[in-house]
Amino acid sequence: MPRKLETHTRWENSDRRLHEEKELPATEAKQGRMGRRILAVLLVALALTAIVWALVELWGSYEATHTAPVTATENQTAAPKPPAQGNPQSY
User: Fold this and answer.
1) CA-to-CA distance for 28 and 8, rounded, in angstroms?
2) CB-side exposure of 18: number of CA atoms within 13 Å?
3) If we measure between CA atoms, which residue out of 1, 24, 23, 26 comes closest to residue 10?
4) How many whole angstroms separate alpha carbon 23 and alpha carbon 29?
5) DSSP bridge pairs for 20
6) Which residues are CB-neighbours of 27 under 8 A, at least 6 positions away?
7) What is the C-alpha to C-alpha distance for residues 29 and 22, in angstroms, rounded to an integer?
8) Contact by Cβ (8 Å): 83, 89
9) SS (H, E, C) the chain
10) What is the mean pLDDT of the chain?
11) CA 20 to 30 Å from 13, out of 24, 33, 51, 73?
12) Does the pLDDT at position 26 exceed 90?
């Protein structure tokens, strides 16, 4: 059952005029009822985020499998050489 809107007038000192105010029920004062448009925007943004995330994951796995493996050079894996027999080292 719709309520009759109540109207009040009040004096505003800033512009020295009477202003008419209407009291609205809470459901009529809201900006939107169900919010279907914002829900659609949020769902589309979530779907686009998931698509971009999936593409980045695919690109990352492609890059990981198609890059040349890093091989250790001979200097990195060789054991240190023992000191020469003719030169005694003093510490």
Assistant:
1) 17
2) 4
3) 23
4) 9
5) 9
6) 33
7) 11
8) yes
9) CCCCCEEEEEEECCCCEEEEEEECCHHHHCCCCCCHHHHHHHHHHHHHHHHHHHHHHHHHHHHHHHCCCCCCCHHHHCCCCCCCCCCCCCC
10) 77
11) 24
12) no
Q: Cα dist. 26→3, 19, 23, 51 in Å? A: 11, 21, 9, 39
Residues 6, 21 contacting (CB under 8 angstroms):
no
| Tokens coding 26 | 């809470």
Condensed to tens digits (0 to 9), the pLDDT of residues 46-56 reads 999 999 999 99
Pair of tokens at residue 75: 């200097």
Of 23-27, 29-33, 60-64, 81-85, which has the strongest mean pLDDT?
60-64
The C-alpha atoms of residue 86 and residue 80 are separated, in whole angstroms, by 18
Name the pTM for this structure.
Answer: 0.40
